[in-house]
Design brief:
Elements: H1 9-34, H2 45-99, H3 107-130, E1 132-133, E2 136-137, E3 144-148, E4 156-160, H4 170-173, E5 183-184, E6 188-191, E7 205-209, H5 217-222, E8 227-230, E9 233-236, H6 248-263, E10 270-272, E11 276-280, H7 290-295, E12 299-301, E13 303-304, H8 306-356, H9 360-387, H10 389-396
Antiparallel strand pairs: 1-2, 3-4, 5-13, 6-7, 7-11, 8-9, 8-12, 10-11
Helix pairs in contact: 1-9, 2-3, 2-8
Length: 397
């Protein structure tokens, strides 16, 4: 090729090579300083897409582990409370067995036993009402927990404790009527409430047999015992204070006021007749469902007596034991979930590292190579720039 003062082809070629080497050095320096092989999409477009997907999985699994551990805490809280409830029921059973020994105990002694039994029942209700996790009740029958224990939609675990009709209080456990003093069971007839679902809405009624207006009405009122459950609340018929009552109206007023305070009903909900004591609930509202109607349907439960109390308590203990077994199995499942997620995070992180992270040893070797090329390119560019000096010799000749 001829000599030219306009275009230094050798210098252009050296400059081009040096520019590429300099760009490669910038990339290598960036990888070594950041620790990432992929710092922008242009470095590896396909690898970046795969890596971002793996990063999402890793972040989701890390949060899922925390979610599962929170779920385990919920289960442990409920199990601890139910363990105490079991201890209370065991003590109640001992008292029931003691009270059934009527050959030794008189009514005064039975009443003393019932005092402790009533306090234990109140504590059962207290535990069921106050056991919460982050403000959410656990034992009132409403708990249905769903835990996101995986990085993807639908990767959940669900557990319920009790149900809407049976929490872990005395009513839900079936021991609200446990009374070791006497056995009382008044014949009761119930007409269920009708919701707006089948329509038209109608109030429920309940009739307790007996003459509440004729001769001896006072004894009929004072002999009322057992409980009425209505709209999620319970009313002890034997708790009414009839002091000062003279006429049937007086007795009905005392009964109605006590029921209103306990159940939230109208004071005139009770009406006495010669054949029974009628209780009328509220009419279900517009748009009410069958579940609403069930809540507004009263239920009468008589007092158990000592002998009948024993199987009732046994059933309650069995129900709590079954619930605790379910909770324990669920907790163990969460533990295995956490262990599985830990292994998955380690393996997924390794895969992501192979795609995105810098191989420091290999990149350092590459950097050393590029440094040599840069130095060589700079030297050759200098030589190319000097090569045109021979033209001056020709011009001087």
């Amino acid at each position: 090729m001829g000599l030219s003062v306009i275009t230094n082809v050798a210098a252009l070629a050296a400059t081009h090579s040096l520019a590429r080497t300099s760009a490669a050095m910038d990339t290598s320096l960036e990888r070594l300083s950041s620790g990432y092989r992929i710092n922008r999409a242009a470095d590896d477009a396909a690898g970046l897409e795969i890596s971002e997907g793996l990063t999402s999985q890793i972040g989701g699994m890390q949060q899922a582990i925390r979610n599962a551990q929170d779920g385990k805490s919920v289960v442990e809280t409920a199990d601890g409370a139910l363990g105490e409830s079991t201890a209370i029921l065991q003590r109640m059973r001992v008292l029931a067995v003691q009270a059934a020994n009527t050959g030794v105990l008189n009514q005064t002694a039975l009443a003393d036993v019932q005092k402790e039994m009533s306090q234990l029942k109140a504590q059962l209700d207290h535990i069921a009402a106050t056991t919460t996790f982050n403000g959410t009740p656990l034992l009132d029958g409403s708990y249905l927990g769903t835990f996101q224990v995986g990085p993807d939609v639908g990767d959940t675990r669900t557990i319920s404790i009790g149900n809407t009709q049976a929490g872990m209080d005395t009513r839900g456990l079936g021991v609200s009527t446990v009374d070791v003093t006497t056995s009382v069971d008044i014949p009761a007839t119930v007409v269920p409430a009708v919701s707006d679902q089948p329509g038209p809405p109608a109030a429920a009624t309940m009739t307790l047999a007996g003459d509440y207006v004729g001769a001896g009405f006072a004894n009929t009122f004072t002999s009322l015992d057992g409980t009425i459950t209505y709209n999620g609340k319970t009313f002890d018929l034997g708790s009414v204070d009839y002091t000062g009552a003279v006429t049937p109206t007086d007795y009905l007023t005392a009964l109605g006021n006590s029921a209103a305070a306990a159940l939230g009903t109208s004071p005139s909900a009770f009406v006495g007749t010669a054949t029974g004591l009628n209780f009328t609930g509220d009419v279900p509202a517009a748009g009410s469902t069958d579940a609403d109607a069930a809540l507004l349907t009263p239920e009468y439960t008589g007092k158990s007596g000592a002998s009948a109390a024993i199987p009732l308590i046994d059933q309650a203990i069995a129900r709590i034991s079954t619930t605790r077994a379910d909770l324990g199995a669920f907790e163990k499942r969460l533990e295995h979930t956490v262990a599985r997620l830990g292994v998955a995070i380690a393996n997924t992180s390794a895969s992501d590292s192979r795609i995105r992270d810098t191989d420091m040893a290999g990149e350092m070797a590459n950097f050393s190579r590029i440094q040599v090329l840069t130095q060589a390119g700079s030297a050759m560019l200098a030589q190319a720039n000097q090569s045109t000096q021979s033209i001056l010799k020709l011009l001087g000749a």
